[in-house]
Amino acid sequence: MRSVPPVARAYVLLTAGVAVLCAVPAFSAATSWPGVALLAFLYAGCEQLGRCRLVGRRAPKGMGTFFPVLLAGAFLLPPAAAALVALPGALLTSVERRPAWLRKVWRAAQLALASWAAARVFGALGGPDAVADPRFPYALLPGGAAVLAFCVALTVLDGGVLATAERVPVRSAWRGLFLRMLAPVAAHGLAGLVMATMWTSSYGPLAALLVLLPMYISCWVFAQYQREWSAHQATIRALVQAVDIKDGYTRGHSERVGQASMLIARELGMAGERVEALRFAGILHDVGKLGVPTRLLRKDGPLTPEEREVIQLHPEYGHEMVRGIAFLGEARSAILHHHERLDGSGYPYGLAGAQIPEFARVVAVADAFDAMTSTRTYSRARPVAVALAELERCAGSQFDPLMVGALVRVLERDGWHPVVTADEAVVPPPRPESVAVPPAASL
């Protein structure tokens, strides 16, 4: 319990107390206990399905709470009874961080209060009558209002935890929470409303259960996608960190090139998948430096022609390193060809014009732009306007004019605001002026 601040523990216990007060009336009213028990069992089963031996090994972690059953309870039951549906599932859910009991109590109280609020709003707007009669479209309005109430309750409570347990500043603890959860909760709410309508129809609860299967499968698929995407991001971060550790001279450079490449792609109207692939290309364009001897990357004297030839092998090294990473797609061609020049004087293969892949032409411009606008040991940062003028001067010979024009337009319109998460406090060893690269190029 020492990991949770006292004020956060007090906040959780207060929330739990309020949830108990909201649920108590269910025990003194004519509550349909079979319905409460069935919904609670269904919710607990959905939450525990990932631990099943048959499914659990393939079910991705972090799937999140399965809200359709909770919202169906809010649409079918009185508020006090709806608050009870979440309790068994929330209390049985496994928790990795300690104290487990406090976190389980918090989750149960939070979901109970959100369900109670949704049921109150749904009932106040005549939702139960619209669900009971064959008038499903008329239940959409109270159902939508109930979903909003559910989201508001979760937002308020989550923000309070961030402020008390995570010490997030109060002015920003609630920022963005509501909008992030609105779309998924709305989709779950529609499924819950269909489930409630079928439950009260002549088909009965059994037919209502059929709604859960496609909804659960869609949530499972989305969670699987999220897990794979997180693995992709982790792969990219590991490669970039390895390059930064080996060559601190380029620290932060990769992320800025990725950002500039993404700006160019968006300005050119590329599809979202290609924009993201170009960001990967920019971030990983120098990954081949892992194959270059460290003594050359950190050499304190002039590079010999032979040493420069070794360093210029890094595009080929990088391409070999990422050849088997399927999700990079077109990004791999950019890693191999980002030092080619439009006039054919680049490396490693001396490609010219349209022979150079489109992604490589984008990354070449982004790479040169960051090289000119970043302070390095052998050169001071140039103003953005000066760097853009240099790119325009070299357009047609070194760079693709289309890519240069796109970067110029977007930066003149929106400015350059690089966001770099790498630690740029590490100062690399100085390099002599004699090894400075040309103004519009970088190794």
Automatic annotation (TrEMBL):
Entry keyword set: Membrane, Transmembrane, Transmembrane helix
Listed Pfam families: HD_5 (PF13487)
Domain (HD) ranges: 250-372
Transmembrane spans: 66-93, 105-125, 145-165, 177-199, 205-223
CDD domains: HDc
Domain HD-GYP as annotated: residue spans: 228-423
NCBIfam families (alphabetical): HDIG
Name of the protein this chain belongs to: HD-GYP domain-containing protein
Provenance organism: Streptomyces endophyticus
